[in-house]
């Protein structure tokens, strides 16, 4: 890592860029609560890169956490960078202006570190756009000491192989733990002026949550992925056979000498662990979030009340990668909510977690928040609700000034299917909760469903409509009126590190038929008060193909990007044909990749990257298959 002169592009941005883009508020910076430092005087400069637009990134709480966490160290500077919209990308290229940060309008290629928050597989092409606009080689192997260290974090780090060639390293697990340690390490190495490769190797040795892809070589036999080989010393291992701490032999393969921490001396860890911050109560929590210039998707005070989920839905990657469950105290949450409100003026406080209904002190927390915020006409939002006994009384508690509607992730339409997916909801609890919501004054209901689970029948799909109708008509019991139901239907995507990650995705034709079944049944039942919204089937297929792929997919991603793939999460820019052709260009098939099934004996492209023990997943899988095969 070299000491760099940082280019400030204020003149170029103000004279040639901002006047030419459609929404300049996305790029001007200078918002309330922004933190701007003298970059030249800082020991370490970090670009916090979110691979989507400003409106999406500014709604991501994790970015706010890292922003305040890094900038709390006086001689560290963290500045934000988002993916420019298509019109802005065109202007940057035509005017030869490198991608810049919002705070200082500094060329991000001159930063020491660029950290990308990887929240979904469909953001990968945006990562390449940002690197290319910055003037940074896409492939880690092509970078020199003059380039920043490119780090990937977030959920995408646990499935890193498809994008491994584009990153110098990945950090797995909780950012509140990893970021301070990683930055301290790189600050020291910057002072030592070590070669780039040596710095990365030392990072892999020092931290068991750091994955440096360049230290490993993927192996293939007859085009099938068969594991990794460590490059330094050429010590082979496959993650499924990696020795446990204290062992010295890899089940018949070349020996791996491990020290007490399970490290491979002079090489890298055979298994990368998720970092866990044990003291969640005192983990950094934003106090002064930035108030966006352009309207963000979510403009609210967002407080993470709990990390991890006790539910363990068998399709949910976050449920299996975020253990253990940890909570913040009511006092800490209320204090943070007050500080955030007075720093921003937002009119809603949102309580975030994978399953907020499982927060053990929810009633007390909501009562405390209402007591303070109702006089200020600030609403309380409790998303991520899982129906259970305590949810029955929740609508009584959440009597904020705005009762827009109640949102519940039902996932499946009957008790049998919910047992298969391990979703702890019964019809009895669901109807009791919705009736309580209607009595509390809620008029609308939003339900989330997923189609394509194992054991699913045509009747199960049609019951989605019947359930929505019954819940809508339930309001007649309370007020004599039918409720409006918004039902969002997504398509099952098998996810790595989950029990259902072994399963194939259903063919696209199955989902098209399911969509027709639902709409035909709605017409038959004359249920005009139910509004169905369906996820893009092609995007779900791509997500399945990418999410469980090995390192060979990097070539597909780069080809798709070079052929124009951008903002694949956005329906108005997603181009399925580009992706299908990119797979074909590398003798692969998108549908075959999406519909691939894995066996318990297969070496999985993600199994060296954190996640729960394979035996735990297999136990869940076997139980689900037993239930799915019952008449």
Automatic annotation (TrEMBL):
<dbReference type="GO" id="GO:0051536">
    <property type="term" value="F:iron-sulfur cluster binding"/>
</dbReference>
<feature type="compositionally biased region" description="Polar residues">
    <location>
        <begin position="251"/>
        <end position="265"/>
    </location>
</feature>
<dbReference type="InterPro" id="IPR045784">
    <property type="entry name" value="Radical_SAM_N2"/>
</dbReference>
<dbReference type="Pfam" id="PF19864">
    <property type="entry name" value="Radical_SAM_N2"/>
</dbReference>
<dbReference type="Pfam" id="PF04055">
    <property type="entry name" value="Radical_SAM"/>
</dbReference>
<keyword id="KW-0808">Transferase</keyword>
<dbReference type="InterPro" id="IPR023404">
    <property type="entry name" value="rSAM_horseshoe"/>
</dbReference>
<feature type="region of interest" description="Disordered">
    <location>
        <begin position="230"/>
        <end position="265"/>
    </location>
</feature>
<dbReference type="GO" id="GO:0016740">
    <property type="term" value="F:transferase activity"/>
</dbReference>
<protein>
    <submittedName>
        <fullName>(Dimethylallyl)adenosine tRNA methylthiotransferase</fullName>
    </submittedName>
</protein>
<dbReference type="InterPro" id="IPR006638">
    <property type="entry name" value="Elp3/MiaA/NifB-like_rSAM"/>
</dbReference>
<feature type="compositionally biased region" description="Polar residues">
    <location>
        <begin position="230"/>
        <end position="243"/>
    </location>
</feature>
<dbReference type="InterPro" id="IPR007197">
    <property type="entry name" value="rSAM"/>
</dbReference>
<dbReference type="InterPro" id="IPR058240">
    <property type="entry name" value="rSAM_sf"/>
</dbReference>
<feature type="domain" description="Radical SAM core">
    <location>
        <begin position="295"/>
        <end position="513"/>
    </location>
</feature>
């Amino acid at each position: 890592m070299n000491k760099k002169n940082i280019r400030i592009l204020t003149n170029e941005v103000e004279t040639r860029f901002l006047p030419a883009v459609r929404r300049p508020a996305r790029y001007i910076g200078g918002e309330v609560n922004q933190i701007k430092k003298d970059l030249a005087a800082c020991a370490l400069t970090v670009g916090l890169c979110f691979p989507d637009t400003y409106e999406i990134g500014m709604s991501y709480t994790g970015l706010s956490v890292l922003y305040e966490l890094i900038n709390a160290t006086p001689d560290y500077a963290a500045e934000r960078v988002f993916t420019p919209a298509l019109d802005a990308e065109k202007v940057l290229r035509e005017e030869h202006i490198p991608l810049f940060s919002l705070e200082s309008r500094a060329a991000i290629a001159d930063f020491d570190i660029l950290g990308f928050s990887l929240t979904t597989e469909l953001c990968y092409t945006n990562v390449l756009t940002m690197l290319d606009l910055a003037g940074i080689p896409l492939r880690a192997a092509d970078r020199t000491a003059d380039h920043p260290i490119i780090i990937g974090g977030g959920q995408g780090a646990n499935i890193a192989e498809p994008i491994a060639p584009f990153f110098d390293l990945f950090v797995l697990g909780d950012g509140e733990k990893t970021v301070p340690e990683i930055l301290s390490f790189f600050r020291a190495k910057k002072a030592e002026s070590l070669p780039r490769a040596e710095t990365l190797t030392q990072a892999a040795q020092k931290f068991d949550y750091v994955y440096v892809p360049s230290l490993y070589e993927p192996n293939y036999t007859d085009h099938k992925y068969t594991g990794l080989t460590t490059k330094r010393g050429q010590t082979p291992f496959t993650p499924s056979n990696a020795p446990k701490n204290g062992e010295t032999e890899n089940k018949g393969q070349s020996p791996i000498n491990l020290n007490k921490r399970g490290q491979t001396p002079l090489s890298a860890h055979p298994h990368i662990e998720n970092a866990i911050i044990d003291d969640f109560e005192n983990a950094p929590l934003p106090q002064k979030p930035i108030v966006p210039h352009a309207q963000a998707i979510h403009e609210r005070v967002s407080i993470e009340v709990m990390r991890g989920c006790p539910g363990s839905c068998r399709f949910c990657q976050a449920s299996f990668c975020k253990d253990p469950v940890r909570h913040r105290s009511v006092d800490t949450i209320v204090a943070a909510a007050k500080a955030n409100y007075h720093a921003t003026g937002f009119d809603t406080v949102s309580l975030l977690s994978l399953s907020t209904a499982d927060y053990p002190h929810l009633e007390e927390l909501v009562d405390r928040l209402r007591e303070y915020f109702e006089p200020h006409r600030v609403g309380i939002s409790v998303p991520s609700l899982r129906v259970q006994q305590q949810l029955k009384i929740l609508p009584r508690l959440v009597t904020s000034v705005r009762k827009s509607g109640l949102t519940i992730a039902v996932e499946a339409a009957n008790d049998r299917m919910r047992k298969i997916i391990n979703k702890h909801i019964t019809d009895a609890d669901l109807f009791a909760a919705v009736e309580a919501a209607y009595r509390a004054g809620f008029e609308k209901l939003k339900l989330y469903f997923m189609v394509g689970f194992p054991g699913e029948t045509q009747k199960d799909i049609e019951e989605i409509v019947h359930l929505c109708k019954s819940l809508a008509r339930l309001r007649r019991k309370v007020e004599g009126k039918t409720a409006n139901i918004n039902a969002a239907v997504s398509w099952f995507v098998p996810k790595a590190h989950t029990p259902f990650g072994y399963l194939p995705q259903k063919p696209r034709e199955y989902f098209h038929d399911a969509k027709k079944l639902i709409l035909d049944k709605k017409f038959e039942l004359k249920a005009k008060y139910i509004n169905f919204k369906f996820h893009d089937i092609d995007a779900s297929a791509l997500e399945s193909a990418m999410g469980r792929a090995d390192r060979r997919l990097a070539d597909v991603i780069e080809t798709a990007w070079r052929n124009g793939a951008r903002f694949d999460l956005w329906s108005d820019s997603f181009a399925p044909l580009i992706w299908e052709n990119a797979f074909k260009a590398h003798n692969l098939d998108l549908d075959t990749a999406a519909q691939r099934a894995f066996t318990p004996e297969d070496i999985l492209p993600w199994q060296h990257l954190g996640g729960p023990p394979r035996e735990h997943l297999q136990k869940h899988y076997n139980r689900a298959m037993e239930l799915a095969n019952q008449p």
